[in-house]
Amino acid sequence: MFGAIYNQPIQKEKVGFDNIPDYIFPSIDGFLDILEIKLPSDEVIEVDRAHPGSWKWSQKCNGAIGQVINYLHQIEAHPDELKRRIRDRHGVDLRVVKPRSYILIGNSENWKEDKIEGLRKMNHALHSIEIITYNELLKRGQKIIEMYSSEPS
Fold it and tell me: Taking a C-beta distance cutoff of 8 angstroms, is the pair 76, 105 a contact?
């Protein structure tokens, strides 16, 4: 559901000495990306009451962003070790260069337009990290099913 750009994900692989993202995504072009999973009940963004019209990351989401930043740092610090470990354990040769990362958290199903736009703006400010809500991931999956199940005209 993350797209046709990924091969079979690898679950719980160490990226540093103690750092383990929930999934490593091998891309079809041979690069490594990561996924961190949080709960669908976790809040994603909150109104920033100190700055009208602004949003801020929730405490849970902010913690997940920090966690992923640490994973990315560990990946950059130990690329050869990680590449060797994945090749030896999973038989997959990957390029470990500037991984993209995803954080699956929260549910935006009942969000109003301003909050949806707020997440879009907040996501745009992140580099190599994308926050995705559970229902957004579900919509992506439904779209893939729709694309492959419709008859050609």
Answer: no
- Strand locations in the chain (E): 10-11, 23-26, 32-37, 45-47, 55-57, 101-104, 129-132
Give φ, ψ of 56 to 5 degrees: -140, 155
**Is 57 exposed, middle or buried (CB count within 10 Å of its CB: 0-12, 13-18, 19+)?**
buried
Q: What is the pTM of this model?
A: 0.88
pLDDT digits (tens, 9 = 90+) for 83-129: 998 899 889 899 999 999 999 999 999 999 999 999 999 999 998 99
Closest Cα to residue 20, out of 65, 62, 84, 70? 70
Which whole-number Å values give the CA distances from 67 to 52, 64, 117, 149, in the listed order?
A: 28, 5, 24, 38
Residue with token string 């090749």: 87
| pLDDT of 40 strictly over 70 | yes
29-to-32, 88, 90 alpha-carbon distances in Å: 9, 19, 17
Structure tokens at 95: 């390029």
